[in-house]
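Re: [ENG-882] Designed sequences occasionally contain unexpected residues at chain ends

Forwarding the minimal case from QA. Structure tokens:
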């Protein structure tokens, strides 16, 4: 598959192109919106919204006017408005930075399946329905003092009150809760929650830890071990 990567940050574009190459993609790189609009889009477009010469939203609009090529927007912008505008202009998916290479490839394959499905539907031969294989339930809830983390329902409660977490915040907390008091190295946390190949600032771990401390209501829940990583400690425990 030929991929057009529109990304001006060399620290992201170069390793991302190399990583996609390992998955068998042929990558053409562009650093500006004007260059992207003048380059054949290939089979798939990965489009950063923060380009130096024009907004990626405008690039998305321009690409969609001339081609039905699948587009995934890659950006550090977290605003709902940007996502809605981009998707309404014809982007097929939206992935916020930082992101892992495996997640990106999985989304690309999912988009490819969705866009190919209508063409295949008319010629598909019905197959005998098969019952899905049973999925083993996760172990029981993790408990540390008043904090309970249920990995089956992905619910978190503090002293009986629900705590709303983002998916990454939940994954990070659940990992720390597996062994309260144990020190989890930064690299291990990044690889477990964001996977080994992720693109974006490594400060994202600190941002998520800060958010967890705030949502848990006491910064003492997650202790920083300088130069190593973090550990979960029930306050007063």
């Amino acid at each position: 598959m030929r991929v057009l990567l529109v990304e001006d940050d060399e620290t992201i574009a170069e390793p991302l192109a190399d990583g996609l190459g390992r998955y068998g993609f042929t990558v053409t790189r562009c650093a500006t919106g004007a260059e992207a609009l003048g380059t054949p889009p290939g089979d798939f477009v990965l489009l950063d919204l923060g380009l130096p010469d024009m907004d990626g939203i405008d690039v998305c609009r321009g690409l969609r006017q001339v081609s039905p090529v699948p587009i995934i927007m890659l950006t550090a912008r977290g605003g709902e408005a940007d996502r809605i505008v981009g998707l309404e202009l014809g982007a097929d998916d939206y992935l916020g930075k930082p992101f892992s290479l495996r997640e990106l490839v999985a989304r690309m394959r999912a988009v490819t399946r969705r866009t190919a499905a209508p063409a295949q539907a008319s010629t598909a031969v019905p197959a005998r329905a098969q019952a899905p294989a049973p999925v083993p339930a996760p172990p029981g809830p993790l408990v540390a003092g008043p904090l309970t983390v249920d990995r089956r329902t992905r619910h978190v409660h503090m002293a009986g009150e629900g705590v709303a977490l983002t998916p990454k915040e939940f994954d990070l907390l659940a990992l720390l809760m597996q062994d309260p008091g144990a020190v989890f190295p930064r690299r291990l946390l990044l690889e477990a929650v964001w996977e080994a190949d992720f693109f974006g600032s490594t400060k994202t771990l600190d941002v998520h830890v800060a958010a967890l401390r705030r949502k848990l209501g006491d910064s003492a829940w997650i202790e920083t071990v300088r130069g190593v990583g973090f550990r979960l400690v029930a306050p007063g425990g």
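QA comment: On inspection the terminal residues look reasonable. The mean pLDDT is 82. Proposing we downgrade this to a documentation issue.
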